[in-house]
Amino acid sequence: MLDRESFALVSDMYDHCEAGKITIEPEFYFKRLALNLALELCYGSRVEKVDDPFFRDIVDAVETISSYVLSSSSLSYL
Question: Is this structure's pTM higher than 0.85?
């Protein structure tokens, strides 16, 4: 599982940056790696592409939830 996901990470980044000719933002590739490891371990499925709308929706939802959790946890120290 880890081998397949790390290979997918490197090969997709290499393909999308056109062998180093253009710059890409690697953040979403690493997020897909983490999500795919969790999805495969728990549910036996994975997200194939970084451009998948389902993947983008999950990332947006997690970032929204994280922003609320982080802002509310900082208020408890006041």
Answer: no
Tokens 């929706």 correspond to: 57
| Cα pseudo-dihedral 21, 52, 70, 37, rounded to 10 | -90
pLDDT in tens, 18-68: 988 999 999 999 999 999 999 999 999 999 998 889 999 999 998 898 888
Spatial separation of the C-alpha atoms in residues 40 and 2, rounded to whole Å? 10
- Rounded Cα distance between 66 and 74, Å, is 12
Is the Cα dihedral 67, 58, 3, 17 positive or negative?
Answer: negative
